[in-house]
Every structure is written in C-alpha cells, then in structure tokens.
Design a protein that fits this description.
With about 290 residues, the chain is α/β, with parallel strands linked by helices. It has helices at about 1-20, 115-150, 155-165, 165-190, 195-225, 230-245, 250-290, and strands at about 35-40, 45, 55, 60-65, 65-75, 75-80, 85-90, 95, 100-110. The model is unreliable at about 5-10, about 15-30 and about 285-293 (pLDDT under 50).
Length: about 290
C-alpha cells in the first residue's frame, strides 16, 4: 500500500511538471478527458466525466465522475455517490465522502496540526535547500571548468605557486579576505561609498572564482592519471566535481568550501602580484636607458 501511494504521488508530480496550464474550473459534463488537470480555482468533475490526475491548489474540489489520482492543497474534497477515484491526497482541508462514492485510498493531513505543519514546512525547506545546492553545484562546475579551459595557457604559473606552498597561499587568501571584507564594510558605512563597496566585493568574488578554477585543476592533477597528457578542462572537471561533492557534505562541506575559497583568493593574489612584478621589472631597464640617453 505504501509503494502504491508513492507511485501515485509520483504520477501527480509528473502531472505538475508537464504544466498543462489553466482551463475552466468546471469540467464538461460529457466526454472523457484522460489528461491531467491543474487548477487554482474551485473545480468540479461532472458525472460521466473521466480524468487522469487532478491537482487543485487553494480551492475545493467536487468529484461526481471518475479520476485516477487527486491532490488538493489547502482545500476540501467532496466525493459524490457517482464518483470513482483511485487515490485522494488532501493537505490542509477535509475529505467528505458521500455514501455510494468509491475511493480506494485516502490520505489526509491537516496543516493546523503542529506535527503535519512542521513536517510540511521542514520538508519544503529541505527540498528548497537541496534544489538550491544542486543549482549552485551545477553552475559552479560549469563555470570553473570554462575558466580553467580559457586559462589553459597561463594557468601553469599560479598552479606552480600553489604547488610550491599551499599553506602560504592559504594564509595570503585569509589576510586578503579579511582586509577586503573590512574595506567593503568601511565603504558601505557611507551612502556615497556603497557603490564602491559593491564594486570592491565584486572584484573580490571574481578573484576568488578564478582562484577556485586553479584549485580545481590542482585537485584534479592529484587524481587523474598522467594529467600532463590530458586537456586542462578534463582535469578541472574532475577536480571541481570532487570539490563540489565534498562541499555538499552537511556542516563539514561549508568549512571545506570556505577553505577552498580562501585558497582561491590567495592563488589569484599571488598571480596578480607576480604579473605586476614582472611588468615593473620590464619597465625599469627602459627607464634607466632613457635617463642615460
């Protein structure tokens, strides 16, 4: 019985995903409709009308015909004597069954009950958090892989710096992060400085994301066999996949992500410092030559 209920609920969720759109709230009295229905208004299934799955949100549902699976959220369900329903799920309302109606499975949960209300809120919250983490993981995986592929010619420089001393890079990223947060907070204290604070934080985030791409390549090189013979984007994809997988671990994952973020900031900081030093070193001889001339 439990599996049958789960399969039926899955069928209704598929009906929601299909998104059949809105239709008249009162169904035709004649004919057969096998498609699912989604309603946000009071709905009636007339005698002789046959439907598949019905989902009604925030309103009542009256059935005098035939239906497979019924889901009503925050509304009442009335089953008339001529109704034939496989399963009814009502959340937040009541189910009224008139003698003569045939229904095989009824599941009812009143949202006024603290247990069911808390369970529903907790379940929806957990589902929202899971969906958000999944979306962020997918976007982060694609973004870091694309960045690593775009920097394939120059990524060896910061990668070598990171392989030389991860601890030093991490400490640099920590100091830069603390300084960036304090500087942004100082700018945001005034109305004029808010745009500059937003710009500063944006640049800081860009530096961290670019550094995370280097971290992903570094992790991938430790896992992939013969990484020198593989494209950079493949190594980065393996590394960022492992990084995202471990970062999704509750509590510990957040700490790991913060650690990777700080290391990424340090990598980009060292990289920019090296580029600035090289550029400054190239300019200095030309200045001396001009002075001698």
């Amino acid at each position: 019985m439990r599996w049958r209920w789960l399969y039926s609920l899955w069928g209704m969720l598929l009906c929601i995903a299909i998104g059949l759109g809105s239709a008249p709230s009162v169904l035709a009295a004649q004919g057969t409709m096998n498609a699912g229905l989604i309603r946000t208004s009071t709905t009636q299934v007339a005698p002789g009308q046959a439907v598949g799955d019905i989902v009604v949100v925030g309103h009542n549902l009256t059935i005098a015909g035939i239906a497979d699976h019924v889901l009503v959220i925050n509304g009442n369900v009335t089953l008339l004597p001529t109704s034939r329903v496989d399963m009814v799920v009502d959340l937040g309302g009541a189910v009224h069954t008139v003698p003569g109606a045939k229904v095989y499975t009824v599941f009812h949960a009143s949202l006024t009950d603290p247990f069911w209300s808390g369970a529903l809120v907790t379940g929806l919250g957990a589902l929202a958090v899971w969906g958000g983490l999944l979306a962020v993981s997918i976007v982060l995986t694609l973004l870091l892989t694309v960045i690593a592929a775009a920097l394939r010619e120059t990524i060896r420089v910061p990668l070598a710096e990171m392989q030389r001393s991860v601890r030093r890079v991490g400490l640099t990223g920590l100091f830069v992060s603390v300084g960036a947060v304090a500087f942004c907070a100082l700018l945001a204290a005034t109305l004029v400085g808010i745009p500059f604070a937003v710009l500063c934080f944006f640049l800081y985030a860009v530096a961290a994301i670019v550094g995370l791409a280097v971290v992903a390549v570094w992790i991938g090189r430790m896992v992939v066999n013969d990484p020198a013979q593989r494209p950079v984007w493949v190594v980065a994809l393996v590394g960022v996949s492992l990084l995202v997988a471990f970062c999704n671990i509750p509590f510990v994952g957040l700490l790991l992500f913060c650690l990777a973020w700080v290391v990424g900031v340090g990598v980009t900081t060292h990289w920019l410092w090296m580029l600035w030093s090289m550029r400054k070193g190239r300019r200095r001889p030309s200045t001396l030559d001009n002075g001698e001339l």
